[in-house]
Amino acid sequence: MKTTGNILRRSVLAGAAALIGATLAPAAYADELEGIKERGVLKIAMSGQYPPFNFVNEQNQVVGFDPAIGTEIAKRMGLEVEIITTAWDGIIGGLLANKYDAVVGSMSITEERDKVIDFVGPYYNTKRAIFTKAGSPVTSVDQLSDVRVGVTLGETHEQWARDQGYDLNTYKGLPELLLELDNGRVDAIVNDSIPVMLAMKAGQYDLAVIDDPSAEPIGAGIAIRENNPDLAAAMQAALDSMMEDGSYLAIAEEWVGGDIR
């Protein structure tokens, strides 16, 4: 049986794709790289709520691993970069509506997403993880069906948790998700492993990890609109050169403490 979340997600994606198809002339499907180069700016989007991958600092600047990667890719393409923050649950719709050129925001590459957008990369790998407060009586995946689980709205982890039939609270981003767990408003959270592990390592939160044998590594990619092979090739070439000359590793060490390829 399809869940409400499944139906809503597919309706949004299908609706956005139909809107683009209905309103753009065939000429609009020409590769966008030339137009971006003429403009001189690569517009990239992210939530701004996913530290240390992307977040807003005290100077109101969007910083982190993702903007650093996106900025370096733009530089190697001879472009300036414009960073746009937007709600995660509408970020694919914004891409399809031409509000930006790419999403460099730790987006997991999934079969469902690949039906309506294309991906460059992956540019790092992570996997699903489940966390509780240290000392929690919730110690196994089997117990999650009896407790309140927190997820970020629009992430792949939300759909996975809905498919399991969990009782969910949804949030806008990781900081809110961690705060709600810390305050006891949810009993467990589901998120990519790396950012939560880093928050634990930094001493920000005292959490425990629940073993999830079904979790498998998944790549995070740069999302672009379909039918843009030149743009995809140029971005991939820039990413590959970063990985080859050590620039990628330097960015990774600065923001996440090591290589996450």
UniProtKB/TrEMBL annotation:
<dbReference type="InterPro" id="IPR006311">
    <property type="entry name" value="TAT_signal"/>
</dbReference>
<protein>
    <submittedName>
        <fullName>Transporter substrate-binding domain-containing protein</fullName>
    </submittedName>
</protein>
<feature type="domain" description="Solute-binding protein family 3/N-terminal">
    <location>
        <begin position="41"/>
        <end position="259"/>
    </location>
</feature>
<dbReference type="InterPro" id="IPR001638">
    <property type="entry name" value="Solute-binding_3/MltF_N"/>
</dbReference>
<keyword id="KW-0732">Signal</keyword>
<feature type="signal peptide">
    <location>
        <begin position="1"/>
        <end position="30"/>
    </location>
</feature>
<dbReference type="Pfam" id="PF00497">
    <property type="entry name" value="SBP_bac_3"/>
</dbReference>
